[in-house]
Amino acid sequence: MAILPTRVFAGVEVPNTTLITKALALCRKHLNDLAYNHTVRTWLFGFIIAAKIPELQGRDLEAHAIAAILHDLGWDETGDLVTQDKRFEVDGANAAREFLRREAGDWDKHRIQLVWDAIALHTTTSIAWHKEPEVVATSYGITADFTGPDGAIGGHLTWEAWNVVVKELPRLGMKEGVREICCRLCRTKPETTYDNFVGQYGERYVEGYTLAGKKSIDFMEASTLG
Q1: What is the C-alpha separation between 127 and 214, in angstroms, rounded?
Q2: Bridge partners of residue 58, in order along the sequence
Q3: How far, rounded to the nearest angstrom, does the alpha carbon of residue 115 sit from its chain's CA centroid?
Q4: Taking the CB of residue 162, how many other CB atoms lie within 10 A of it?
Q5: What pTM did the predictor assign?
Q6: 222-to-156, 199, 213, 216 alpha-carbon distances in Å
Q7: Distance (Å, whole) CA 134 – CA 204
Q8: Which of 4, 72, 116, 220 has its CA 20 to 30 A from that of 86?
């Protein structure tokens, strides 16, 4: 694998390629400040953590970076990347795939699929953590941004490193912001929220929203087949 140029960002050495710069610009165009900061923090946290795990050393660094940066394009507020019939993780994965097909002419199908999988599965850690290293590393970084260093995989993220990153990319009321994003999804495209964690926000915070009759068990129990 080719050696990539690097830079130090918020104390973290990360790859610095034209494609990553374009991914950051795409993310900046479609996400609000809170979501943008979150996605970039997950990139940095993922690189900090993965650097300390031998099994992740051989991963495709550029694919990891792109997946982390673009993983929440399904939160797009412009409306350009959001469908009415797909859950937000799939919207994000599809948007990232189209970006790579457009901008990464030398990427083969496997590299593009790694990014798609990392994004589509990023809220399903019970699957993502058993996939390829690029998918695993992306998920570790995302998880760390929600749990903080004390909940990061293997204790590989220190509070010192966390504080440097958060100073550069403030959280901006992350918990409340994610709640509002998920509630917006429940209000605007509820059919895409019944089979993932988003629906739990709807059931708790969105008036008139319900998971009753929408769970997998409801579908199975309603079947007329023996």
Answers
A1: 22
A2: none
A3: 10
A4: 20
A5: 0.95
A6: 46, 21, 9, 10
A7: 34
A8: 220
Query: Around 34, how many Cα atoms within 13 Å sit in the side-chain half-sphere?
Result: 13
Q: Residue 183 in contact with residue 204, Cβ under 8 Å?
A: no
**C-beta atoms surrounding 21 within 10 Å:** 10
Per the structure, the count of domains in the chain is: 2
Helix (H) or strand (E) holding 13, with range, is strand 12-15
Q: Domain range for residue 128?
A: 6-172
The residue out of 145, 172, 199 marking a domain boundary is 172
The answer to whether 192 and 86 are in contact (CB under 8 A) is yes
Q: Which pair of structure tokens corresponds to residue 135?
A: 């998918």
Q: Which two tokens stand for residue 102?
A: 């457009």
CATH classification of the domain holding 145 = 1.10.3210
180 in the same domain as 85:
no
* Nearest-angstrom CA–CA distance, 107 and 149: 34
Note the pLDDT of residue 1.
Answer: 63
* 223: in domain: yes
Q: Which residues of the chain have pLDDT under 50?
A: none
